[in-house]
Amino acid sequence: MRNRIVVGFLLGVLVLTGLACNVSELSTMMTTPAPAETPTPVIVVLTPTPVSPDVTFQADIEEQLVINVYARVSPAVVCVTAAEHFGNCIGSGFVIDEQGHIVTNNHVAEALPELLVTLADEHTVPAEVVGTDAGSDLAVLKIDVPPEQLVLAELGNSAELRVGQRAIAIGNPFGLERTVTTGVISSLGRTLDRDDSDFQLAEVIQTDAAINPGNSGGPLLDSQGRVIGVNTAIRSLSGVNSGVGFAIPVDIVKRVVPELITHGRYRHTWVGIRGRTITQEMVAAMELPVDVGVLISEVEPGGPAERAMLQGGNQEVVVSGIRMYAGGDIVTAIDGIEVKDFDDLINYLASRTAVGDVVTLRIVRDRQEVEVELTLEERPGER
User: Domain locations in the chain?
Assistant: First the structure.
């Protein structure tokens, strides 16, 4: 009996050590009885299979980065609501200075009268609309709160953004206050059509960080927790996140917001043309002398382009089933910056020009390249 107990103990050690003995050693242990006295206990040290330290360390860094950004920035994010819908966030915003100015979207600020703002400490206060701008979908609210009760968001720089870098969104989707989602910057320099105007939103950031109704006006952040954009729209057939969200870049915010605070409005620049981005089909059908640029189809009467004597199309043609005007000037550059498509022109005007600036357009007319100076005026119809 004592022999059987000893053999059983040794077999237990054998299993625990991962079959450390070879076959001959096992045979010897099983056929040679152990001594009669109590066996000396065997201490077995198990060494787990090592996990690559790089994998574990990298995962910890990724998590801690988002944790740190959220802890620092989420107190600056507010819930925008209205007296008649108290307690329900219709949108988001973020505090930018000790005077209580809050950046949000124009479509949030103009959604309902008598806006309220709920801070991270659940303190709700009335908000005054200081200025709005439909042309950039930006607005500024102001609350009367002691500076020590405010946490400020830091504005970053969107000119240096790169596709693929991290993007972190904080907002109030479906009224779920201060929700964080993460993703990457999917594209840069997009333009978005507007429902209320023929003009477009410029220099838009595309991201796959989840953005849903209620996120509007909240910050899009980089990995350092700096604001790189204001979440403004999604592209979706269902009305909820589909992985295609859009934000107004912070460099546009830094141009527009000071004007909204000072004057209550922002003046967008205007050239006064309608046109089309040149395609290969257009090049073939119209025998165009260049294969990139913007073909001017119409010149707005009384606008800057007409004053600069730019020319629109003078004959109607059909290209790929689309009616358009041929024979107009082709814009290929502005201030020495190449214009490959209409978005390039829109984005340049939005990010680099002001009303009254004189720009130089390089155009192709009658197969000759010429330069035309044009004085930018204020965009009509958005006051």
Answer: 1-47, 166-248, 269-378
* Residue pair 91/118 in contact by the 8 Å Cβ criterion: no
Count the alpha carbons within 13 Å of 242 in the hemisphere toward its beta carbon: 8
- 250 contacts 219 by C-beta, under 8 angstroms: no
Global pTM value:
0.82
Per the residue annotation, which of 92, 136, 186, 216 is the catalytic one?
A: 216
Residues 220, 231: Cα–Cα separation, whole Å: 6
pLDDT per position as a tens digit, 132-172:
999 999 999 999 999 999 999 999 999 999 999 999 999 99
Asked if residues 252 and 268 have their Cβ atoms less than 8 Å apart, the reply is no
Q: Which structure tokens are listed for 6?
A: 């000893």
Exactly one of 137, 222, 251, 329 is catalytic; name it: 137
CATH number given to 269-378:
2.30.42.10
Which CB contacts under 8 angstroms, 24+ apart, belong to 367-372? 367/289, 369/332, 372/308, 372/309, 372/310
Q: Which CATH architecture best describes the domain 166-248?
A: Beta Barrel (2.40)
107 is catalytic: yes
Three-class secondary structure assignment of 124-176: EEECEEEEEECCCCEEEEECCCCHHHCCCCCECCCCCCCCCCEEEEEECHHHC
Catalytic position from the list 107, 133, 208, 329 = 107
pLDDT digits (tens, 9 = 90+) for 92-121: 999 999 999 999 999 999 998 899 999 999
- The per-residue pLDDT for range 156-214, each reduced to its tens digit, is 999 999 999 999 999 999 999 999 999 999 999 999 999 888 899 999 999 999 999 99
